[in-house]
Structures are given as structure tokens and as C-alpha cells.
Amino acid sequence: MTLLEIATILAARDGKPEPTNGEDFAAYNIPMFAGCQYCGETLAVYNAHPQHNGYVSCKQCSRAPFVDMEEWEARQELEASAHDSTQEEAHDDDNYVHLR
User: Is residue 93 in some structural domain?
Assistant: First the structure.
């Protein structure tokens, strides 16, 4: 599952067209560009695979990808509840993608 697939599903649920620009993706807190956590490859929404550890990776390096939207949403709920019980964690790493 890529960031593009996630954003497309979220937009469809909101009755909006498929996201096509940075503003569309930002509405879902999804970056258009990122870097692979493992090899550093530059990624865009169509080839960035979010991982369970909060980072993204390329398909070749992907080690713990989300397989479907249900799994991704469960992770988002878990992060939201953890966030509510603690304060916002600071991530200095530019490749960290906090998807919510």
C-alpha cells in the first residue's frame, strides 16, 4: 500500500476527487515527497510505502508495510490514543512521516 493509495481512499470517503497536488495530500497529512528509511531513495506518494515504525520506504526495502487500509487505520487509532496519553514526540528525522 502506498501513500497515494491511502490518500485516494481517504479522498473518496470524503467525496473528493483523487488527490493530485501537495495541497490535496496535505489535507490528509500525507507528504508528497519523502526518503526511504533504509536506502535513502527519493520517494513520491506513488512509490512511498508507509511502515509500521512510522517511516516510509521504497518497495525494495519495505520490511513492515501496511497491507490494507484497515491495518493502516488501526495503527492511526493506536497512535492517536498514545498521543492523547502523552505529549507530542519530537522527531528530528525528516523522513519520519507521522500520518494522522
Answer: no
What contacts 42, CB < 8 A, 6 or more positions away? Answer: 33, 35
Is residue 100 predicted with pLDDT exceeding 50? no
**CA angle at residue 2 from 20 to 92, to 5 degrees?**
90
Domain count, the chain: 1
Residue 71 lies in a domain: yes
The distance in angstroms from the start CA to the end CA of the chain is 16
Tell the burial category of 54 from Cβ atoms under 10 Å away from its Cβ (0-12, 13-18, 19+). middle
| pLDDT for 77 beyond 70 | yes
Q: What is the pTM of this model?
A: 0.78
* Enclosing domain of residue 45: 3-85
